[in-house]
Amino acid sequence: MSIDLSIIASIIVLAAGVVEESADRFIHNPEFDALAINIWLVWILPMIGAMLSPLFGRIGSRVRDTAPAVFAFASAVMASTLVPVALAGDAVHSQYPWIPDLGIKAGVVADTLSIIMSNLVAWISFLIMVYSIGYMKGDPNLVRYWFFMNFFIGSMQLIVLSDNLLMLFFGWEGVGLASYALIGFWYRDRVKDYVGRIGHHAWGIAQYTSPSHAGMKAFLMTRAGDAAMLAGIFLIFIHAGTFEYKALLDDPAWAHIMQSNGLLVPAAVLIFVGAIGKSAQFPLHEWLLEAMTGPTSVSALIHAATMVKAGVFLVARLGPLFFAVASIDASLFFEVVTWVGAITAFMLASQAIVNKEIKKVLAYSTGSQIGYMLLALGVAGLSAEFVNGYTAGLFHLASHAMFKASLFMAAGGILHIAESRFMDDMGGLRNHARKTYIFMLAGALSLAGAPIITSGFWSKDAIFASLLESHYIFAPALFWIAFLTAMMTAFYTIRMVGMVMFGSKSKHLQELEHHGHKLHDVGAIMWVPFGVLAGLTIALGIAGPFVEEQLHNLFAAFLLNSYGIESHGEVKLHPEAIASSVIAFGIGSGLGYIFYIRRALSPEVVARSRVAYAVYRFLENRWYINSMYYWAFVIAPLFASRIAWRYFEMVVIDGINPAFQFAMAWWSKVVRYMQTGVVQTYIYAFAVGIIFVLLIVIAGGE
Amino acid sequence: MAEILDYTIVSIILLAIGIYGLTVKRNFIRMLFAVEIIVNAANLNLVAFSRLMPSPNATGQTFALFSIAIAAAEVAVGLALMIVAYRIYRNIDIKGLKRLSG
Amino acid sequence: MVISMVDLYSTPIILTIILGVTGLILPLLDAFRRRDMSHKVHGSIAFGALILSIAVILVRIASGSIPLGIVFTDQVIADDMFGSFFSIAMLIVAIVAVVSSIEYMRRVPNPGPYYSLILLSSIGMVMLAYSTDLLMLIVAWELMSIPTYVLAAFKKKDPLANEAAIKYFLFGALASGMLIYAASLIYGITGSTNIAAVMQALISIDQGLRPLAFIALALLIAGFGFKMALVPFHMWIPDTYEGAPTPISALLSAATKKAGFAAAFKAVIFGMLVFNVEWSLMLAVIAVLTMTIGNLAALTQRSMTRILAYSSISQAGYMLIGLSLAPYSDLAMQGALFHVMNHAVMKSSAFIAAAGIALVIGTMNIDQYRGIGRRMPLISLVMAVSLLALAGVPPLNGFWSKFILFAAAVNAGSTVSWAPYLAIAGILNSALSLGYYAWVIRRMYFDEPVTIPTVNQSYVYGRAGVLKIKEPRLILATLLFALAFMVGFGVYPAPLIAFSQASVPSSDVFSLLPIEVQSNIVSDQQRYGGSSVEMEVEVEDHGDGSHGSEGDAATITTVVGYEPSTLEGEDGTDTGSTNGDKTDGELNATTNATSTIGHKP
Q: Which domains does chain B have, with CATH numbers?
C-alpha cells in the first residue's frame, strides 16, 4: 500500500513539474495565443483523464465513473470555445519544435474543418460517456473501460486537430489500439457476447465471432491499412521534406516532382487505403461487423460517430490539398475514393436488409453511410465546383454521427430490455419503452431520409445534388447506385423498427415476462443522451436548407482561405435531387412498412422462390467475402509459416544447391531426421551460405 | 609467387577438410579436430604470406602466434563443454543433441 | 610495420583496466573462503565496475575530447565516437544482464567466475568497438566470444543449456576460423592488418588477386553474419537463446550481436567501399531474407525465448538495411546505429521480462502466459511495451529508428533502384511481426488466467484463495529503467538521433585515413568499372618548409565520383584530370574534412 502511495506521489510531483515547465514554455513563446492553449487542451485533457483512471478507481466507484465524463466535458467545452473562430472563417495555428534534427514540429491547427469535426467528436463523446455510466453499470472492469474511452477520445482529437501527418498518424495508431482493446473488452468470451448466429458457417468458415477474436481481427485489418498509409506518408515526406499540411500546400514543388515520377496518385491512394481500413470500406470492411462484440456504448462512440469517420476526415483534409496542388492529375485519386464509397455503400446496404441482429444492421448501415460520404467527397474532386460535394459529404458526416450515435445508444437500451441481440426475439416493444421508441423512430427516419423534417434527408439530398451537378462521366451510374442504396437503406431501417417495435411479442419476450422480468424503459441517464441527439437531428432537419446554406458558405470560405480553391455559384434547391430522395424513401420505407409494420405480407413469401432464396443466402453470408479472406489470409499463411520453420532447412536449402547433390545424398544417409535440432544441418547451412555469398559477390564484381 | 600459390592451395585444402569434418563428423572430438584444422589453415596462410609476400613483414607471424593461442583457448573451452555434456549424456555423439529444435 | 605505444589515457584502455581488474579479482574473492559469497556481492561489484565504465565514457563524450565518427589510425585502437556509441549500448546490456542474473541465477553455484566472465566478455566487446586493426578485431572477437560459450553452459546440470552451448560453440568456432582465415587472406593481399592500410592497398590491387579478395569478403560476411544473425548463418540462434540462461541470452542477443555489427561495419563496409563490388545488393537480399524468415518462423512458436530469438533474427535484418545502403546514404547508417541502440534495450528488456515471468511460473511456454497481465502487472507491462517497441509502434523508440531506416531507404531510391523495395519489405515485415507480438500481449492481458500449479512459492504471498504475486525486485528495477528508456526516447528521440549522427557523420571513408599519409593518391587508370577515388591531403605549412607535426591542421579533400576533375598538387599545380569515362556514376560526393594531427588528451 505504501508503495502505491509513493508511486502516486512521485507521479504527481513529476506531473507538476511537467505542467510547470510546459506552462513556462507556453507563456514565453512569442506566438502565444490564448486560444492556442485551448486547442492543445482539447486532446490533452482526455489523455490526462485516461492516465488518472487507475487513481480514480482506487478512490471510489462514484469518482471512478463520473470523473471520466468530467474530463470529456472539459474537453468539449474547450472545443466549443473555438467555434467563433470557425464562424469567422479564421484559423488558429500553434506549433512547437519537437525533433530539430529531422525538422519535425509538433503542432495543432484549428480551422473550420477541424473545429467542426472536433466539436462533433467532443460533444457526442461526452454524451456517450454519460450514457456509459448507466449502460456499463455493474461491470467489473470499469477502470480499464474508462481508461481506453478517454484514451480514445484524446487520440481522436489528436487526429482531428493535428497540423501534420505525423501526429495524425500517432493519433491514428492510438484510436486503433483503443478500438482493439474496447472491442475485445469482454475478453472472457462468454457466449452471450458473441456476434453472429452460433453454428452459422459459410464455405467452412465460421460466421460468428468471439470478442477477443473480433478485437484481433479489427486490429490486424486496420493495421494493414495503416501500413499502406504509412508508406504513402513516407513517399510524400521524402519528396516534400515535411509533414505539415500548410507547408505542403505553400510549396507544391513536391507534387510536381511526384507527378513526373508517377508517384503522386499511388501515394495518395496508399494514404487512402489507411482511410479504407479505418472507415471499414471495401475491401477492408469486415472488421466493423464483428466489432459489435464490444459494449454498445463503444459501438456508438467508436464505430458510429468517431473512429470510422477518421477516414472520411482524412480524405476531407487531404482531398482539397491534392485538388489544389495537382488538380487534373489527381483526378484518378478522386475516382478511386468515389467508387470505393459507392461500392461499399451498395454492398453493405444489401447485406443489411437480411440481417437479424440489431447491432449488425446498424453496423452495416454505418459502413454504407460512410460510403455515401466518400462518394460525395470523391465526386467533389471530379466536379467543377469542389465545394458542393465537399459540403455534402461533411454535412452527411455530421448528420450521420448524430443520428447513428443515437440509434446505437437506443439499440443498447433495447439490448438491455430484451436481453437478446436478435431482432427475432423482440417485437411490440413500443408499448413498453415509449421514450426509446420515439427517439429511435426519429433516428431511424433520419437514416432512411424521411423528407423535410429530418437532417438525414437534407444531407442525403445534398449528396444526390452534387452527383447530379457533377460532369464526371460516370456520375449517372454513381447516382443510380446511390439511389438504389437509399432505397435499401429506407427499407432496412423501417424493417428494423418494425421488427423491434411493432408486431406482437416474440416467444423470447413472453418467456422473459413469464419469469418475472418486467419489460420497462431505460433510465434517464441513458435515454437523455440519445434523446438529445434525436432531437437535434429533427431540429437540424427542420432548419435543413438554412443549415446547408450556412455550411456551404463556411466551407467555401474555408476552401478559399486554406487551400485557395475558389467557389462560384450558390446553393440552390435541386428539384431532381429532392424528387429522387423522396421517391427512394417512399419505395424503400413503403416496402418496409408493408412487410414489417403492417405485417400485411410475410417476408417468407419472398423467400420461397429459389432465386430469391439464393440471393438471400448470398447476402446473409456477406457476399462470401469474409470466408474468402479467411482462406487467403489466415489459413494460407499459417500453413506457410509451419512449412517455413519445419521444412525450410530441409527443402529449400537442399533444393538451392545442385552442386552439392552428392554431398547431400551422402549426408542424408548419415543424418536421417525429419526435424532439425541437429548441429550438422546448421553447419551445413552455414557452409552453403558462404558459397551463396561468394557467388553473389563474384557475380556482382564482374 | 608460385611458392605462395602452393601454400595457399594447401591452406584451402585444409579449410575444405575442416569444413567437411565439421559438417559430417558426429563425434565431438573429431569436430574439435576439424576446428583446429581450419585455424591451422589460416595460420599456414599467415606464416606463408608473412615470409613470401612481395614485401614481407613480421605481422603475419605475430598474428599466427596470437591465433594459435586463441585456438588453444577455444578448444579448451570446447573440451570443458564436452566433459559436462558427457556427464549428462554418457557419450559424445552430436546426433543426440536434438531436444531443442524447430 | 611499427606499432607505436598506445595512449594509456584513451577510453578503451581505461575501460579495459577497470573491467579487467574487476573481472580478475572477482573469482579471487572466493579463493580463501569455505563458502562462496553470494551472487549479490559479486553482482554488485560487477555492476559497480560496469557503471563506472559507462560513466567514464559519458564523461569523455561530455568533455568533447572524442573525435566524431570513426577514426582510423595506424594504432590498433582509436578512441572515437563510433566506438563509444557501441560501447555504451553493449555495456548497458551487460548491466542489465548482471543485475537480472543476481536474482535469476541466485541458486547457481560459482558466482565469482560468472560475473567475471561477463566482465571479461565486455572487455572484448569494448575493444571490438574501438579497434582499427584486423588482428585486434579478431582478438577482441575471441575475447568476447569465448566467455560466452562458458556462460551459456553455466547451468551445468541443465541438459538444455548444455546442448545450447555446444551448438553455439561449434558454430562460433567455425565462424572464428572463417574470420581468421579471411584475415589471413586479406593480410596476404594487402600486406598489412591495419584497416586503414588495407583500404589503401585495396584501391590498387592486382587483377589476379581479386578472387582471393572475394573469398575473403565472403568469409568475413559469414563470420560476422553468424553473430549478427544473418540468414543463412542464423540457425544456431533459436536453439541457443532458448537453452541458455535467459540473462545470457539477453547478453548474446543484444550485446554480442551489436558487436558483430560494429565489426562488420568496420571491416566489411570500408574494405568493400574501396572495392566497389555490387555487394550492397547482396547485403540487401540477405537483409530481406533475414527479416522475412525470422518473422515467418516466429509466428507459430510456443516458447517465449524462441519467439524472441527469431525476433532477434528479423531485427538484424532491419539493421542490415542500414548497412547495405551505407555507401549511398548517411542517414541509413545513422538509422542503423540508432536501431542498434534501441534494439539493445528493447530486446534485453524483453528477455529479462521473460526471465522474470519464468522465475515465478517456471516456464517459458506462452500458453502459460494467460492472464499474467493481472497477476504480475508491472512485468507484463514492460514486456508489452518492449514487444510493441520491437514492432515499431509509436510513441516508442523502436518506431523512430525504423522510421529513419525506411525513410533513408526510400530516399536512396533516387540513386539505387532497389532501395525502395527494401523499405517496402521492412514495412511489411514490421506489420507481420506485430502479429506474433500482439499474440503474446493478448495472451497476457486478454486471456483468462490459468491456475498455475508450479508457481514458485517464494514469490507468492497472501491468504489462500487471494494469492498475490510479489514480482522479483531486481528484475523489476532493470525493467523499469528499460521502460523509461523506451518511452522517454520514444517521445523525445532527439538526443539519441544526435548521438547516432555524431557516430557516423558520413559514410565517406576516405576522410578517415590516417594523417601520416602525405600524398596525393590518384586512382589507377585501370580500375575495373569502379569509382575513381582521389584523395588529397594538405598539411598546413609551417612556413619553414616543414609540416606534419602535432597540432598542425590538415585538410583532406576527397572526391569520389565518375566525373573527370582536376586536383591541385601540393605546390598548386594541376595534377591532371582523372579517369572515368563512365557516365552512369552513382556516387558523386565531395567532402572536406579538417582534422588535427595527433592525439588530443
A: 4-92 (1.10.287.3510)
Q: Which of B43, B87, B100 sits opposite C239 (nearest CB)?
A: B100
- Tell me, what's the ipTM? 0.96
Hey, which residues 440-479 in chain C have their CB within 8 Å of chain A?
442, 445-448
**Residue bearing the bigger pLDDT, C559 or A205:** A205
The proportion of chain A whose per-residue pLDDT surpasses 90, expressed as a percent, equals 9
Residues 521-540 of C with CB under 8 A from A: 528
pLDDT digits (tens, 9 = 90+) for A26-35: 555 555 566 7
Q: Is the dihedral of CA B11, B12, B13, B15 positive or negative?
A: positive
CB pairs under 8 A between A and B: 38
Task: Supply the pLDDT for residue A251.
Answer: 80
Rounded to 5°, the CA angle A199-A202-A208 comes to: 45
* Residue C275: count of CB within 10 angstroms of its CB: 21
Burial class (CB in 10 A: 0-12, 13-18, 19+), A507: exposed
CB contacts, 8 Å: A676 with chain B = 98, 101-102
Nearest to residue A423, comparing CAs of A520, A514, A508?
Answer: A508
Is the previous residue joined to A658 through a cis bond, with omega within 30 degrees of 0?
Answer: no
A14 interfaces chain B, CB cutoff of 8 Å: no
Distance CA B26, CA B31 (A): 7
Chain B: residue whose CA lies nearest to C162: B85
Contact C222 A689 (CB under 8 A): yes
Cα–Cα distance between A700 and C276 in angstroms, integer? 9
List of chains touching A (3+ CB pairs within 8 A): B, C
Chain B nearest-CA distance from C270, in A, is 21
Mutate to test the interface with A, among C233, C235, C496 (most CBs of A within 10 A): C235
Least confident residue range of A138-147, A367-376, C67-76, C571-580: C571-580
Per-residue pLDDT tens over the stretch A654-667: 444 443 344 433 33
Closest alpha carbon to A648 in C242, C90, C289:
C289
pLDDT at B10: 93
Query: HSE-up of C240 (CA within 13 Å, CB side)?
Result: 31
Tell whether B88 is within 8 A of chain C (Cβ).
Answer: yes
- CA–CA separation, A670 and B37 (whole Å): 22
**Interface test mutation site (partner B, options A643, A646, A667, A683, max chain B beta carbons within 10 A):** A683
- Tell me how far apart the alpha carbons of residues C449 and C459 are, in angstroms, rounded to a whole number: 17
Q: Tell me the residue type at A343.
A: I
The string of DSSP codes covering A47-90 is: HHHHHHHHHHHHH-HHHHHHHHHHHHHHHHHHHHTTHHHHHTT-
pLDDT digits (tens, 9 = 90+) for A109-157: 888 889 999 999 999 999 999 988 888 888 878 888 898 899 999 999 9
- Chains adjacent to C (≥3 CB pairs closer than 8 angstroms): A, B
Q: Are C261 and C335 in contact (CB under 8 A)?
A: no
Q: Which of A100, A227, A681 sits opposite C427 (nearest CB)?
A: A227
Instruction: Give per-residue pLDDT as tens, B10-35.
Output: 999 999 999 998 888 888 999 999 99
The residue among C181, C193, C242, C306 with the most chain B CBs within 10 A of its CB, best to mutate, is: C181
Burial environment of residue A288 by CB neighbours within 10 A (0 to 12, 13 to 18, 19 or more): buried
Strand, coil or helix: what is A177?
Answer: helix
Please write the tens of the pLDDT for every residue from A605-655. 666 666 766 777 777 667 767 667 666 666 666 666 666 655 554 544 444
**Surface of C (491-530) touching B: CB under 8 A:** none
pLDDT of residue A654: 46
